[in-house]
Amino acid sequence: MLARVEPSAERIRSGDAIRTWRFLAAADEPGVLVLLTGTTGSFPRRVGSQMAVAADGTTAGSLSSGCVEQAIVAEARAALDATAPRRVRFGQGSPFIDIRLPCGGGIDLLFLPDPDRALLRQATERLEARRPVALSVSNDGRLSLEDAGAEPGRLVVHHAPPLRLVVVGQGEEGLATARLARAQGLDYRLLSSDEWLLDAAAGEGLPAEPLDAPTALPELAADPWTAVVFLYHDHEWEAALIARALATPAFWVGAMGSRTTQATRLALLRDQGTDEAAIARLRGPIGLIPAAREPSTLALSVLGEIVGADAARR
Fold it and tell me: Domain XdhC- CoxI, which positions (predicted)?
């Protein structure tokens, strides 16, 4: 009999889950979905983290940064051969005395052979359409897409859509931020009225959209998992754009500039009729590094703040 899964509701990075689910759904042969269901001591992964193991031992994702991956693959292949779910503990409290975690803790893993590939494709499509997914695992290893809560014998792993970044700006700051977003693998969008920036972005293969006039603004398509950052020196453009962003459900809206610049910006927003509740959402000055001026440093500083804010709410 499969060991009991403790009731739990966890939140996990969606990008990692999408890669794992795609790997299993696209395989010609059955594979194994491995879930982290419990930890003791210090361990870098959250409960609910997942990896996939194919019949030939190839993998997608990681649960231990390499320290017990070979043992995980061996157990996954054994579960596949037995065509039955199994739960295994590694590290502290494990019967495998020759396998130890560097952190000194222990992990509980649930191995699900031949998971429902149609369901995994459906889960992937939902996340790619920027709809939250709740992957529910019953005590007997059955998967479903429902939020049943922390019922006895059920693990529910919540996956929110990945962070999306909208960069609106001019000059080197906008270009550096788009570069860094691409390097980070983020879903990003670059908007600018700056011909130099548009040409430079095109030259580097960075998609960018032109802004023609402050009165002809595009749809920002910002959802609750979107951050919008303004890197503008032109307040006429900026005020109209910021008001549009503050009217969206974006979880983070911020603008470059000093405290004096921020005060001027807030006054402009009030003058054009933006309500105080919306104005209170605008962050500024922005970035983890105070008074960062060099474009690449500013980009790193701002993106660090955004990624940190996103991680804190998941």
Answer: 25-91
Q: Tell me whether residue 2 is in a domain.
A: no
pLDDT, residue 148, reads: 52
pLDDT at 207: 95
According to the 3-state scheme, what is the secondary structure of the chain?
CCCCCCCEEEEECHHHHHHHHHHHHHCCCCCEEEEEEEEECCCCCCCCCEEEECCCCCEECCCCCCCCHHHHHHHHHHHHHHCCCEEEEEECCCCCCCCCCCCCCEEEEEEEECCCHHHHHHHHHHHHCCCCEEEEEECCCCEEECCCCCCCCEEEEEECCCCEEEEEECHHHHHHHHHHHHHHCCEEEEEECCHHHHHHHHHCCCCCEECCECCECCCCCCCCCEEEEEECCCHHHHHHHHHHHHCCCCCEEEECCCHHHHHHHHHHHHHCCCCHHHHCCEECCCCCCCCCCCHHHHHHHHHHHHHHHHHHCC
Average pLDDT over every residue of 66-91? 88
Which amino acid appears at position 6 of this protein? E
In a domain, 109, yes or no: yes
pLDDT-derived band at 299, boundaries 50, 70, 90: very high
Number of domains into which the chain is organized:
2
Q: Partners of 171 in the beta sheet?
A: none
pLDDT surpassing 80 at residue 281: yes
CA pair distance 282, 304, nearest whole angstrom: 17
| Residue that wins the pLDDT comparison between 237 and 60 | 60
Rounded to the nearest 5°, which phi and psi values hold at 81? -65, -35
Which of residues 117, 143, 159 is at a domain's end? 159
Q: At what angle do helices 171-184 and 195-203 cross, to 10 degrees?
A: 30
pLDDT at site 151: 59
> For 177-204, how does the pLDDT look when each residue is reduced to its tens digit (9 = 90+)?
999 999 999 999 999 999 999 999 999 9
Q: Is residue 268 part of a domain?
A: yes
Given 97, 129, 159, the domain boundary residue is: 159
